[in-house]
Specification:
alpha/beta, TIM Barrel, four-stranded mixed β-sheet, 11 strands, globular, disordered N terminus
Length: about 280
């Protein structure tokens, strides 16, 4: 599905939406059963009881169901400006979608295409089923690079274009939506996405305001991690000032450390988690 280019920078600047970033949901002692393995990836995986509590709490603060990005851009301005997104494409996505559909909700699922059909990840048939049920399918790159912003221009084009082409072949429609793996965003990453036909790119920056890069809308998301309470998730979904600002401050500090530390930051992160992992 495609959507129209913004008419002006003002149009994009006025686009505001609260987007929540989830990754995966697993059993309490079974984090490696779905998606990427290792302690670093597990940091972003909820248990099923936690996830159910999150959905209930979020539902209690929403005035209407979450929208998809296409509904947001083309629907009435009074529509609820809240979006649910899930990264990586772990096999638990099917069960996640079933939970969402109990509420009548639709979400965005971003797939790293190199992992399609591998143990712990979705198959092509699963992706078709998700799309048939009204969920949005988008690219999460091919290989899920640890530092997307450090890729060369040619590497970025491969990551975006090939992943979008693979998903287009599976779904039978153009893929124009994507999310940046690992939170490693830069304007070069967005420019390459735009060059590859991506019209909207989700990042991990906790903000509700969009920007535009070479015709590509760039929209941030508020992240959910293991152990975050249902009340905290609901406050982010509702756009309450204090938790949103708190996450923004923490994210800004993290990005500063990444910029200063470079590969040393990644090594320190691995030491903290006990091993390397993707998220």
């Amino acid at each position: 599905m495609n959507f129209a280019e913004p008419n002006s920078t003002r149009e994009t600047a006025s686009l505001r939406a609260r987007s929540i970033l989830y990754h995966d949901v697993t059993g309490p002692n079974d984090h490696d059963s779905s998606g990427f393995s290792g302690p670093a990836a597990a940091h972003y995986k909820l248990t099923w009881p936690e996830f159910d509590q999150h959905l209930k709490a979020i539902g209690n603060v929403l005035k209407s169901a979450p929208v998809t990005i296409f509904e947001l851009l083309h629907g009435p301005s009074s529509s609820e400006r809240f979006l649910l997104t899930f990264d990586d494409g772990g096999i638990s996505t099917l069960r996640i979608a079933e939970r969402l559909q109990e509420y009548g909700w639709r979400a965005h699922f971003f797939i790293s295409t190199d992992y399609i059909g591998k143990p712990g990840f979705l198959t092509s048939a699963h992706i078709v089923e998700l799309r048939r049920n009204g969920h949005v399918i988008g690219s999460h790159s091919c290989s899920h690079p640890r530092r997307m912003s450090s890729c060369t221009w040619d590497q970025l084009l491969i990551e975006w274009k090939q992943s979008a082409d693979i998903l287009a072949q599976i779904t039978g429609e153009a893929i124009t939506v994507a999310s940046v793996p690992g939170g490693n965003y830069s304007r070069k990453v967005a420019r390459a996405a735009a060059e590859s036909g991506i019209n909207l790119l989700f990042t991990s920056e906790p903000t509700a305001r969009a920007q535009i890069v070479n015709g590509c809308r760039v929209l941030g998301r508020y992240g959910i991690v293991r152990g975050m309470s249902a009340a905290s998730a609901a406050n982010l979904a509702a756009g309450r000032w204090a938790p949103c600002v708190q996450q923004k401050v923490a994210w800004t500090m993290k990005m500063a450390l990444k910029s200063i530390g470079g590969n040393y930051y990644e090594r320190f992160r691995d030491l903290c988690f006990g091993q390397s992992g993707s998220a």
